[in-house]
């Protein structure tokens, strides 16, 4: 950075290191007949005896060199240097010229350097410097550096805000005042535009986050992002987010409607909302599930009605395309129906045999729980009936055929009607025995003459 003006005022001009000097051409006189545009050679010769003789003085040569050097400096060539004579006014002029041109050369070189490192290499902290300078040289450097500052600061501010935006921080804004002074012109327009962009991004991010939280975390469907004043890509993004949220809301609500209907036993509902990709796969899967559940329910109902209501044994549920749990359920229902059919038919067989007087049949099928208890009861009943029949037959044979009175039927473990029947048979046998024996006793007495 350039030194302050008061510091420059006290400094002295510092000459650069010696460099290769390009000597000015020496202009020689053109003779008496030449006309240089400032009058005739004769008139000039009358004023300058040296010229009249066709020669030039050292002063003329020095002035010609100075003229050519000044012309080169005017044309932007700061490489020309004067020889720098010792002593005299011309020597001082030449030395002063060389200092001025050297300073201009340094200035030009420094401006080229600053333009390169700042404009092309992006080193925003670089500034122009000529070392210790005074007067307009220092003022020029300060003005150039002030211009660079004024140009760099808004650019740096824009870069700072853009970096924070890229890092996800939307709380930063571009300052519209620099060093206490409001920015103006294009810088103000750029700053206002950047800040408006940050505001829109912040509003967009906040709304998208709100909708995402409501839909994805809180489960609140139907939310829509509201971003005011957006256009172009930001409006398209907002519309796309809202379309996504609306579409997802419709799909989830339709899925919820169908699954709620299924949970309530209504298998007539289907997902009808438009969908693509994985949502379409989910839609098809749920609809297939509903179809399979409907088919499963219909088949189970049919088998239950046939077996339980209509008494048609042997029915089997037929549900096509099922797998996993649904296949297991179908197989279990069919196993239950088959097992029940076998058990009932076994019971019917035994009961029919008993009804037909065949007391040798037993319920020999595998059973558990209450069916096993029923099987045991039927088998016990059959055993009891068989023993009862055997005992009644024995007593009847003893009394009625073999004439053995006093016999009693012995049927263990009977109760209820079977015990009553046994008691009645035994009472009948006992009563008959008493009667017959009494008759026999009287008849025997009569036969002996005991009247």
Oligomer state equals: single chain
How many domain units?
A: 4
> Strand sequence of the main sheet, in spatial order?
1-2
What structural class do you assign from the helix and strand content? mainly alpha
Question: Could you tell me the number of beta strands?
Answer: 2
Radius of gyration of CA atoms, rounded to a whole number: 63 Å
Distance between the termini: 171 Å
Q: What ranges have pLDDT less than 50 throughout 5 or more consecutive residues?
A: 1-54
- What string, H for helix and E for strand, traces the elements in order? HHHHHHEEHHHHHH
| Spatial shape | rod-shaped
Topology of this protein?
Blueprint: H1 5-10, H2 41-47, H3 49-52, H4 58-74, H5 88-120, H6 135-166, E1 177-178, E2 181-182, H7 185-217, H8 232-263, H9 277-309, H10 324-355, H11 369-401, H12 416-447
Antiparallel strand pairs: 1-2
Note down, in words, how this protein is organized.
With 451 residues, the protein is an all-alpha fold. The chain folds into four domains: 61-168, no CATH class; 173-257, no CATH class; 275-358, no CATH class; 373-450, no CATH class. It is 65% helix and 1% strand. The protein contains twelve helices and two strands, in the order H-H-H-H-H-H-E-E-H-H-H-H-H-H. It has a two-stranded antiparallel sheet. The longest helix has 33 residues, at 88-120. The model is unreliable at 1-54 (pLDDT under 50).
In short:
This protein is mainly alpha-helical and 451 residues long. It has helices at 5-10, 41-47, 49-52, 58-74, 88-120, 135-166, 185-217, 232-263, 277-309, 324-355, 369-401, 416-447; strands spanning 177-178, 181-182. Helix content is 65%, strand content 1%.
